[in-house]
Design brief:
By secondary structure, the protein is α+β, with helices and mostly antiparallel strands. It folds into three domains: about 100 residues, Topoisomerase II, domain 5; about 80 residues, Gyrase A, domain 2 (2-Layer Sandwich), CATH 3.30.1360.40; about 120 residues, Topoisomerase, domain 3, CATH 1.10.268.10. Helix 7 packs across helix 12. It holds the Pfam family DNA_topoisoIV. Keywords: DNA-binding, Isomerase, Topoisomerase.
Length: about 350
Amino acid sequence: SPNYDDTKEQPDVLPANFPNLLVNGSSGIAVGMATNIPPHNLRETIDAVIAVIRNPEITIPEILKIIPGPDFPTSGIIIGGEGLISAYSTGKGSIRIRSKVEIEEKKNGREVIVVTEIPYQVNKKVLLEKIGDLVNEKQIEGISEILDLSDRKGIRVEIHIKKDANAQVILNQLYKMTQLQVSYGITMLAILDNKPKIFNIKEILTAYAAHRREVIVRRTQFDLDKAEKRAHILEGLKIALENIEDVIKVIRASKNPPEAKQQLMIRFSLSEVQSDAILEMRLQRLTSLEVQKIIDELEEVRKLIIDLKDILAKPSRVNEIVCTELQEVGDKYGNKRKTEISTETIESSSFNAEDLNRG
């Protein structure tokens, strides 16, 4: 469609060969609406699209067995519960992302809270400054030292606990008072047919599958048109080569190229395009080897045309091409899930005063 000042044409939709909106996620705010789609695992998302294509009646619970939840590049642990189910069933929901933490005991008997993964979009520097402020303000007591030992290999933050303090209680306080655990609201809003829509997980996978089908059909039609044009020219060259002596006589008897072109069209029932191709043909194409090349190419192009027409006539073949191409992307770029999914519910992960004051 035209661009903003009507001077150029621009694509309305880019033919993504993987479900980019789900894999990379998206967030943004417009007038009266906002979207916040979390990133997902490439392999899982591709498997889910293929499952939807092969079984249009698949249910959302069945899809959730393939895509159990978002997959953040910063790893972490998702505490989803009903919020995660709601997000995938209705397009809206809330989850919690918790840092990956272990409590280690040093040789001197003191405990250390070790953080190796933090929630998505959390700034480590800001997180550590917040913990330091809470310690200085004595809102959290029992922390003796905070060490950031992170390097290019990964995150490692050590929170050293005082001798008489309870590491688990302090960890619970950190979850509640810092971004060691955060809420993440999901709103799966996207544009479909130039209209905003909130999608559940099946709807967004189905929409992507429909998009890929359209891309494959349009690509196949383009290839078919190109192949038919090529076959048309090759058929003209074949006719000329089979009647080369007569073709030469017609050309030599003509006063100029336009007349030669017209006479070839009349004499051999050729089209304008075919006549042009014959007149532009180099003499070396008259060798027996070049003649055979033209015949062989024509045969291959005819086979291609039959195959392309078969694809356009059979939706099942279009579906298989979509699945095959997706599978190739998954095999080449797919990796293991980074983010763990906890079966713990948001409610059970909340803390009460007794938890915080205990010890």
